[in-house]
Amino acid sequence: MNRIFSGIQPTGNLHLGNYLGAVRNWVRLQNDFECLFCVVDLHAITVWQDPAVLKTHTREVAAAVLAAGVDPKKNILFVQSQNPDHAQLAWIFNCVARMGWLNRMTQFKEKAGKNRENVSVGLFAYPNLMSADILVYKATHVPVGEDQKQHLELARDTAQKFNSDYGREVFPLPEPVIMGAATRIMSLRDGTKKMSKSDESDYSRINMTDDADAIALKLRKAKTDPLPLPDSLDGLAGRPEAANLLDVWAALSDGTRQAALDRFAGRTFSEFKKELTELAVSVLGPIGSEMQRYLADPTELDGILKAGATAARALSAPVLAEVEEVVGFLRA
Ligand code: TYM
Predict the structure, then answer these.
(1) Cα–Cα distances in Å, from 57 out to 69, 93, 261?
(2) Which of 202, 291, 306, 331 is the most exposed place for a label (fewest CB within 10 A)?
(3) Do 13 and 209 contact (CB within 8 A), yes or no?
């Protein structure tokens, strides 16, 4: 039986990349699979988070996931720190995964930069916690954007090493599910950089909370080039900003890059951006207002998350008990 797990960090507002690369796919998978979706606050604190802001972002991200259409009656939506089983299994994985494996993680290299000696130990061990998130439920499929592929490979390596070290087939090897026309949305200011919550320029991303005016302004200011849109995929070579905006169009309209090209070939960016703004507002507007409804009185939201954590723990507890038995811990 397939079980799906995915997570999202509450390090800022959800942006269009998170929505198109991940959350929208969660909404599509929820009808066919058993799904767990998690706001990963333990991951967030691997870099400094102001405590009050972390709480706000945790609720905002959960509200955005619900507003995007994840149904808490069909799925489990919860906050990572409310199920301590993740951290317990992560420690065990710290003792399974190898330093060399983690040293190769490009996300760590990017985030640590030249400051390697001074980042938290948690930032280095981050992928082991991610493996634990998935494997503490024996999840088989993980819907994510392109940037998480390497972490998923590490989760598979860790599952495999655990199984072979202990000579027991405890864990499945989880598969990434990377779907849709927008698996890697780029910054609106630089088509070679990923759209990210941590980019200091808010003009680099469209946030799920942006209103119609903000979306229009950001798209108007989005970097482009002076040429009209090309009529073939080859014509996008060396034009990363054009390719990115066409992918955003494709994903928002549920089409392909080619279909977007067919529609906009020969047109100017300013015409294209006007239509793109209308489309983005029509998709994101209702999500933003539903999100505000959840946030206006967080009682309902907190209740959903609490029930989610209880349901999650009911699934992880027997897996953790099995792992602890296999490892040789005396059980209380
Ligand atoms: P995070 O919080 O950075 O991103 C959440 C999801 O959004 C996707 N994503 C993007 N997709 C397309 N274009 C972009 N520009 C873009 N930016 C982000 C990410 O691929 C991700 O699917 N380590 C994870 C969180 C995590 C997790 C897990 C995911 C923790 N444990 C277990 C899956 C399973 C992260 O930092 O995602």
Answers:
(1) 19, 28, 37
(2) 331
(3) yes
Question: Is 126 in contact with 45 (CB distance < 8 Å)?
Answer: no
CA 177, CA 6: separation in Å to the nearest integer?
10
Residues 6+ apart with CB under 8 A from 242: 191, 224, 225, 227, 229, 230, 236, 269
Neighbour count for residue 249 (Cβ, 10 Å) = 23
CA of 178 to the centre of ligand 1 (A): 11
Overall pTM > 0.85: yes
pLDDT in tens, 57-86: 999 999 999 999 999 999 999 999 999 999
Residue type at 83?
Answer: N
Instruction: Spell out a b/e string for 52-90, using b for 16 or more CB atoms within 10 Å of the CB, else e.
Output: eebeebbbbbbbbbbbbebebeebbbbbbbbbebbeebb
Residue 324 CA to residue 255 CA, distance in Å, equals 47
> Residue 288 is encoded by which pair of tokens?
């933003």
Contacts of 220 (CB under 8 A, 6+ apart): 273, 277
Ligand 1 contact, 17 CB (< 6 A): yes
For residue 195, give the nearest of 5, 6, 19, 7 by alpha carbon. 19
